Amino acid sequence: MLTRRRFLIGAGGLAGSGAVAVAVDREVASGTTVPLVPLGSQPHGLPVRQHAWDATLNRDAHGNPIAPRFDRLFLFDVSGKPTPAHARMLEAALRTLERAFKWGPSGLLFTAGWGPAYFEQVLGVSTPIPTARSLSDFELPSIDHYHLCLHFACDDDSRLSAVEGALLHGERFAGIDGSVKVTEALRWRETRTGFVGTGLPAANQNVGGIPPGKHVPASSPLYMGFKSGFLKNQATEDDVTIAHGPFAQGTTLQVSYMRLRLDSWYQELSERERVARMYSPETTVADVARFTTDAESNPGQLGQAIKRYGVIGHSQTNARARRNGRPLIIRRDFNTVDGGQAGLHFVSVQRSIEDFVKTRTAMNASHAQLQNPAITDTVNNGINDFIFVLKRANYILPARAQRSFPLLPGRAKALE
C-alpha cells in the first residue's frame, strides 16, 4: 500500500521610446558581463502596486472576479555579483512588455518577487521575509531557494509561450520592439505552467492523479470540481498591501507546488461526501449550486462537525483565519499538468507570510483528532488527504518602482 509518507517522498524526487545608447557595464563578477541596455519608457497610468490585478479582471454575473486563464512561473537565480546593469536589464525587459501589452488578462499581468536567498546570499543583508518551511506534520516539501520568481498571467497561453521564448532565448514575436532577453543578468532555473477556468481542467484530465474517464465536471474551473474564487472568500488588495517601510505598497508572495491524487476523491466519495470535505458536512449539494459571492460554511459549526459527523470541511476550517471578517490572503492559484501529473500551483499574496501561515494552520485543524478519532491529520479532514506539497517558497513583491533588484546599491541611478 502506498502510504502518504511514501507518496510524498517519492513525489518530492520528481519533480522602445526613451532609449539611450548601448554601453557595457565594466563591473564584472564570476566571468559575467552584463550590457547596459536601453531602458525605455514606462506607460503612464500603471498601478503603483505590482499586485494590483483585480481592477483589470472580468466579473461574472454576481461580481466575482474571473482569474486569467493561463499562468507561468519563471524561476531564476542572479548571475554573478549583481551590478546596476543587472537591474537595468530586467527593468528594461519588463517595461518593454508593459509597452507592448495592456495591463490586464486580455494583455498581460505579471509580478516580480524576490526570495530570502537574494537578500541574504546575494546582497548580504537581512531578508524581509522568512524562508519557507513545512507547516504540518503530514507534509514534506522541498524548500525552494530561488532568488527571483516572475509570475505571468493572461487569457492567451500562446502569448505566455512567446514571452518565455523572448525572456529566456531572445526570440522575437509580434508586438515586441527589441529584445527582452534577461539571461545575461539572471540564470533560469525552472518554469511552471498552468491554467484555471471553466472547461480547462476537464480538457486536461487525462493525466496521472485523475482516474480514467470523465470525472472532472466540464463546468469546473479547478480539478477538484468546485469554484474557489468568490468575491467574499478573498482578501482585498488593500488588505494585503504593506503600508509602511522600504516595501510599502508591496506585498508578500507564497508559492507552493502541490501534487493531486484524486482517484479516491472521484471513485470512492459521492458528490455529497466531496461537498462535506470541501465545504462542511452541514453543506448540501443544493447549497453549493446556490453559492453566489461566498463559499458559505459556518466555522461556528466546526465543533458540531467534529463530534456529530466525524468530518470537517476545508472552507469551514479556513474560515477561522480571517481579519475583520475577510480572509487574510488572495489566492492566485492554478492547476497544472507539469510532469504529466495533475497538480496545483498554489500562489497567494498576503500582507505578511505569517498571514499565510495562519491560514494554512487553520486548514490543518490539528485539534480535531483529539475530539473525534474518526478525524486524523488527513482522514475526514477537509481536502488534506488529496493534496501533497512537493515544493514551497516565500518571496516579497516590492512596489512597481522597486521591482528590479530591490535594495541593490546604485540601482536607482541606473533606472533614471
Topology (SSEs and partners):
Elements (H helix, E strand, L loop, with lengths): L3 H9 L10 E2 L10 E2 L21 E2 L5 E2 L3 E9 L5 H17 L8 E6 L1 H8 L18 E2 L4 E7 L2 H13 L16 E10 L4 H4 L47 E10 L2 H5 L3 H8 L6 H6 L11 H8 L4 H5 L3 E2 L2 E2 L1 E3 L2 E3 L6 E8 L2 H12 L3 H4 L15 E11 L13 H4 L2
Parallel strand pairs: 7-16
Antiparallel strand pairs: 1-2, 3-4, 5-8, 5-9, 6-8, 10-15, 10-16, 11-12, 13-15, 14-15
Key traits:
alpha+beta, globular
Global structural class: alpha+beta
Average per-residue pLDDT, rounded, comes to: 91
Question: pLDDT under 50 segments (min length 5)?
Answer: 5-31
Gyration radius, rounded: 22 Å
Strand % is 15-25%
Distance linking N and C termini: 61 Å
* SS element count, helices: 13
What features would you describe in this structure?
- Helix content is about 25%, strand content about 20%.
- With about 425 residues, it is an alpha+beta fold.
- The chain has a domain at about 5-200.
- The model is unreliable at about 5-30 (pLDDT under 50).
Could you write a compact summary of the structure shown?
This protein is of the alpha+beta class and 416 residues long.
